[in-house]
Amino acid sequence: MKKLLLSVALGALLTACAPDAPQTEGAPPAKAAEAPARSASDEIHFRALVLDTHLDTPAYFHTPDYNFSQRGDFDVDGTHVDLPRMNEGGLDGGFWVIFTPQGPLDEASYLAARNMAILRQMSIRELAAKYHEDVELAFSTADAERIAAAGKKIVFQSMENAYPLGTDISMLDTFYIGGLRMIAPVHFRNSQFADSATDVSPAYGGLSPLGEALVRRANELGLILDGSHASDDTVRDMLELSTTPIILSHSGPKAVYDHPRNVPDDLLIAIAEDGGVIQINAYGSYLEALLASPERLAALAELEAQYGRDTSTMDDATRDAYRAAFQELNKAFPPPRSTFEKFMEHLLYTLELVGPDHVGVGADWDGGGGVDGMKDIVDLPKVTARLVEAGYSEEDIVKIWGGNVLRLMSEVEAARTSDLASPQVLN
């Protein structure tokens, strides 16, 4: 695939100059202040098309204190992504997530989750309409190239957990028409489609029959299939059944840290050999064992006693109260955090294992990601600097930051067989 680069203006920097001041005889002429020069790795970073495959930021879109156009601060409001920080950190966009937590497998719960997912998709489209001068919905790789060339941020849509589809696979068509281009069958617990990596015990031994139908329809529509959160057997079933390569949108290597959410070497290699891509997450508890303080554990126990653990069964008012209480708890008793070095250990290990044609970054921003030394997207150039230090070329880095996922997406698009009309951009 042709290497993708953002067009970055590297001409002369404009500086504000004061009127000429009287010169002392023999003194050299006054010089205008110069902007600090970028490092070589920063030049590479800001030339590359930088995409993240798992942005949970839409969870904030309908909250009263979040404004996409204003710079937030993780230490103050807990957020990672907004337009000013995208510009500072060189993040050109990615996949913005339609997420619903896993709930009971019954029709009433499916309907409630469906409503929630439709509203989340609408909020993503509203963002693109409201900030149309700065961002734009993307439905294809060609859209992404055009949007980046126009200097705008790219808004693809993904669905984390197919639970809101219920048992009606045709609902996938509805979300596709709205712009969905990636789907993961499962989240933290088993769904009607597949076994989760983190549920107590498997329900199907991989994909369910309904999950197999989901994979087939996703292939027909040209949707990328995402194996993050899925059990190893589910990922193997996806690899065997799918006619196109798959992605792990925010995962990590089990060899670095043995967590159920992480993936063993043989499966990472199989995904890469099939043409897929592994995007490394920055969610601390998946990077290493982190021990919470006794005070935090006690506060969490009190919160659970008051609200329970399953947010999917809460009404809107209770869920809002729970989230507010959880935010206050985090301020009073911050969770333990992993480090940038540990994140890079996961990234560099996976690169060494499967090569730079099959690895990228899906840090789980605004969904629990972020580590000490890389607390939000402003710190993304640090990743590029470390990749340069490790010996990766600019061509490699361009692939890692966005080229690999767009190459995968172009393959999925080319294999599309459905005659369902693809939507046009609506601003």
Automatic annotation (TrEMBL):
Hydrolase found in the keyword field: no
GO biological process, one term: proteolysis
Leader sequence segment: 1-18
Key word Signal present: yes
Highest taxon of the lineage: Bacteria
Pfam families: Peptidase_M19
Record-linked SUPFAM superfamilies: Metallo-dependent hydrolases
PROSITE patterns to which the protein is assigned, alphabetical: PROKAR_LIPOPROTEIN, RENAL_DIPEPTIDASE_2
Gene3D superfamilies in UniProt: L27 domain, Metal-dependent hydrolases
Keyword annotations of the record: Signal
CDD domains referenced in this protein's UniProt entry, alphabetically: rDP_like
MF GO annotations: metallodipeptidase activity
InterPro entries hit by this protein: Metal_Hydrolase (IPR032466), Pept_M19 (IPR008257)
Name of the protein in its database record: Dipeptidase family protein
